[in-house]
Amino acid sequence: MAKDRFSSRGGFILACVGAAVGLGDSLRFPGLCAKYGGGTFMLIYIIALVLIGIPVLNAEIALGRKLRAGAPKCMASLHKKAEGLGWASCLNSLGVAVLYAGMLGWIIAMLIKIVPLCINSTSMTRAETGGYFFENVLHRGVSPLVLVCIVAAWLMMFFCLRNGADSLSKTAKFTVLIPVGLLTVMAVRGLIYTNSGAALRALFVPDFSALANAELWLSAVGQVFFSLSVLVGIMPAYGAYLPDGESVLKDSLIIALSDFFVSVLSAVVLFTTLYGCGLENSFSSSGIVTAFMVYPVALTQLFGAGNTALNSIAGLLFYASLGMMALQSSASMVEAAANPLADKFSLNKKKLVFAVTLVGAAVCVVFSTAAGPVVLDVADHFLNYFNILLLGVFECALLGINAKKINLAGEINRYSGRLKMGRKPLVFSLKYLSPAVLGVLFAWGVFHLIFVDRGIYGGYPVWAQVLGWTLGASVFVCGILIGSGFRRKAAAKTILT
User: Fold this and answer.
1) Following DSSP, what letter does each residue of 103-167 receive, concatenated?
2) Residues 331, 237: contact at Cβ < 8 Å?
3) Residue 3: inside a domain
4) Fewest C-beta atoms under 10 Å: which of 9, 354, 419, 444?
5) Contact 110, 317 (CB under 8 A)
């Protein structure tokens, strides 16, 4: 892993921003803003970003660079029995990458279908337009179009990963900068609407009565971790690629602020678009609902129901930007696992990535069927919520406990000039605040699932529940097996004395 490096600071920052900026920023963040009082949610998000998100982001990047290693070796350096925790994080990322690749296939399919939809929408009701994708594109049986699009998604991911860090930094120039430009164009268009003022007030003006809502605090804090792509093995891997002489602290601040900017930009696009089209009551915190049911209705009316040409262009711009963000994010998750696996088992990196591409494409066949949305929702809940929270509790606690021994603050502040992160605030955030918050989020989710939903997530059938629990548990089981049962003969290198 030490041989792989980003060629420049800009490449590193763009790759990290690309990993962080994804479907969580473009779809989930705006939906949560709408659900929890706009400015109120944003205020709590900023507080959580400063107190928890940025310290964890700095710690992961700094540890990765210090050891020139991915998540497994980083965790093993903190405790000899914690290597399995790092592997669980990597395997969880692979699982989420498969989900995102399936959704990327849907996005590509929608990119193809948005022009015909805009043309035909004049003779369709809003309900028919909103249900177009799931009723006409993702129909019963296997959808040939979606299947081809899923294969295309994995081929694009392989292209992004073929040369490791260098490929990721180069593709990030397109998958980050172009979507930001396209979203900016859509935001400017949204601000032209006569009722854009109402949209901006709903987004930015705090509703302080919402502060009493415990779910608001939990959702805002959870979104910080989700949005920054921490606790998933990506940032330690990218930190290992960061050249010496670069400031972890400065780069982390740029990454966090850039991620927040894209989140707010996406929220402006969604709020002004829906308010402008009279769809202000159609907000959803679900990425699937927003992308494939709400946005199609809005985009077909964006410039008036009869202006199919401009509506089609807007639709192409939106789904192109969404697809590029999903591509970079999912490719980053595969990269976070590929290098440690290749290093652990002495495998050829390119051949391993190719094998992952083939297996991932085969698994993603399910997303070309009507069962795809159920599988996506259930697997995402267990992998991208429960597992990340539980992994985060242990990872943050280990980082906080060992921060002084490994001089984590020193690594963060190296090359940062006058800008410094205090050791005591860093330790407090990692050792106490982050584990406590993540633990509460995990406990609340388990409580809600068991006592409110009565153990049945989403009301889905038994097979879906079994799938969710199996996927969630298998990540930890396999991680422990790799970390303990299949260790190298040589003792693991540690930075602790």
Assistant:
1) HHHHHHHHHHHHHHHHHHGGGS-HHHHHTHIIIIIS-SS--HHHHHHHHHHHHHHHHHHTTTHHH
2) no
3) no
4) 419
5) no
Q: Is the dihedral of CA 109, 113, 118, 120 positive or negative?
A: negative
CA distances from 267 to 28, 56, 233, 281 (A): 9, 25, 27, 15
Q: Is residue 339 part of a domain?
A: yes
Distances (CA, A) of 310 to 187, 299, 306, 323: 15, 9, 10, 20
Q: Say which DSSP state 491 is in.
A: P
Please give the DSSP secondary-structure letter assigned to residue 206.
B
Planar angle of CA 479, 97, 234, nearest 5 degrees: 65
Tokens describing residue 410: 């020193």
| pLDDT single digits (tens) 368-425 | 999 999 999 999 999 988 999 999 999 999 999 999 999 999 999 999 999 999 999 9
Q: Is 68 left (phi over 0), alpha (psi -120 to 50) or beta?
A: left
Rg (CA), the chain: 22
- Is pLDDT larger for residue 226 or for residue 374? 374
User: The whole model's pTM is what?
Assistant: 0.91
Q: What CATH number did the domain enclosing 392 receive?
A: 1.20.1740.10
| Domain assignment present for 495 | no
Tell me which residue range forms the domain holding 171. Answer: 9-485
Name residue 38's beta-bridge partners.
Answer: 206
Tens of pLDDT, residue by residue over 3-51, are: 567 778 888 899 899 888 888 788 889 888 888 888 899 999 999 999 9
Domain-located, residue 481: yes
User: DSSP secondary structure string, 2-53?
Assistant: TT---SSHHHHHHHHHHHHSSHIIIIIHHHHHHHTTBHHHHHHHHHHIIIII
